Amino acid sequence: MATFHPFPRLTLELRIQIWGFATEDRVLRVRKTWNHNQGYWSPTAVPAVTRACSESREHCSYRKAFIINSSPRYIWANFDCDVIQMRSRLLADKNILERDEVRHLRIELVNEQGLDESEFFYHNHVHKLPDFPKLESFNLLVSDGLWPQWTDFIKETYWGACPRRNVRIVDRRTGEWIDEETSGAYHDYRDSNGGKNDNYTRVVDDEEEEEGRMEAMKRLQIPLPRIDLDY
Description:
The protein is an alpha/beta fold. It has a domain at 79-219. The protein contains eight helices and ten strands. The chain has helices at residues 12-21, 54-59, 118-125, 148-151, 153-156, 183-191, 207-211, 213-219, and strands at residues 27-29, 31-33, 39-41, 63-65, 75-77, 83-87, 104-108, 137-142, 167-171, 177-179. Strands 1-6-7-8-9-10 form a six-stranded mixed beta sheet, with no helix packed on it. A two-stranded antiparallel ribbon has the order 2-3. Strands 4-5 form a two-stranded antiparallel sheet. A hairpin with a 5-residue loop joins strand 9 and strand 10 (177-179). Helix 6 packs across helix 8 (213-219). The longest helix has 10 residues, at 12-21. The radius of gyration is 21 Å and the shape is globular.
């Protein structure tokens, strides 16, 4: 991008507005050290606007967040647009920092050693999600593929402030995802070998849904839509 050399000659009020508009669509990965020097950190690159000059840092829409009193560490964050991605273990923290501000959350079901934590999340961590009062969207990155046990999970779980329609189960290897609308049809698709038989294992209580199973599979987008995991 070409440099706009007259920028310093703009009025301060206009420059402040421009700094505030300078945001990035990004996934902000949040990590925490668990030793005696506890603190949050991120492998995600800091926003460019925070490195431009002291004026940009003062007036941009990003702020220093995830600060523990005893730690000098902080993470630049904009909770209006950043997708906060963390491992499920952080949900077990009694005082999850910034939980009152997070709007877009993505949870990885894998620990620091690369081991799957699906069982811990299912039994111990998922009930922490209603603690996020501003949550607008939630993605769950699963390690074992989009198996049938995940298709009923969206409907069976209480998501607090987050609308159920904005919850997605994502295969962390491929980025393919299912949501409330497509999860049942995808379960049937897997059961019926792509609609070639009617050996359904998913139980439905609604007679109208039972009759519309085949049509729902026909509307299903195969291959499934994907999120970008290149970050």
